[in-house]
Amino acid sequence: MPLNLLPNFAEPGRHYRHAFSAGDDFYEALIETHLGLSDEQSAVVNARLVLLLSNHIGDMAVLREAMRIARDGA
Asked: I need a labelling partner for 61 at 20 to 30 A (CA). Which of 3, 33, 35, 71 fits?
């Protein structure tokens, strides 16, 4: 399975007027996750989130491609 780079956010049962709206909802939830945390705590949350979502994806080829693309943009 190739890495999907197109907008792919959705919430079951919810219809969005614009394709980016679900992504906006994700971004808002991500920001709320970090509210009140120190920089160190936020780094721990980010690391845990990466590991949880990577485990959910499970496909090493997809994960390697994502890491390569993320690093290229750094």
From this structure: 33
Q: Which two tokens stand for residue 60?
A: 């090493």
Angle of helix 60-72 versus helix 39-57 axis, rounded to 10: 140
Q: How far apart are CA 1 and CA 64, in angstroms?
A: 12
Tell me the longest C-alpha to C-alpha distance in the chain.
37
Q: How many CB atoms lie within 10 A of CB 16?
A: 14
DSSP state of 17: S
Query: Is the pTM value of this prediction over 0.70?
Result: yes
- pLDDT per position as a tens digit, 8-53: 887 777 777 766 677 788 899 999 999 999 999 999 999 999 999 9
